[in-house]
Amino acid sequence: MTKEEIITEINKAKNAHVLWFANAMALSTGTDPGDSSVPKRHTECAFGKWYYGTGQENNYLESYKAIEGIHKELHNQYNEIFKQFKKLDSEGFFEDITLRDSAEQLNFNITIDKLKDISLELLEKLTDLQAELK
Hints:
Blueprint: H1 3-28, H2 46-52, H3 62-90, H4 103-133
């Protein structure tokens, strides 16, 4: 695979991550995006399939190696958000406006913010990988 093709694949991986992240953020508003919201192992999402599939030809690069831990952490954080969402949703949390400023809402927002930070870090590492390949 040429460097240009690899960079194109990384762009596709970034796009897959952004779409996944949008679905994750839907949970923060009380919207269940359906099957796309079900947690997956870090090796099973579209990005993970690239990373552990054709992306492996880049495993000699430090910027490539730096991605794995962040990606695993992202999935762990999302699993926590998904558990919280299901619990809160079953309790009618998202329909009860009186709970908007509750400790539960604060904790949920903190978890969402952590996911945002990890997501940005992952995208930065992918950009680093692209720069290293150029």
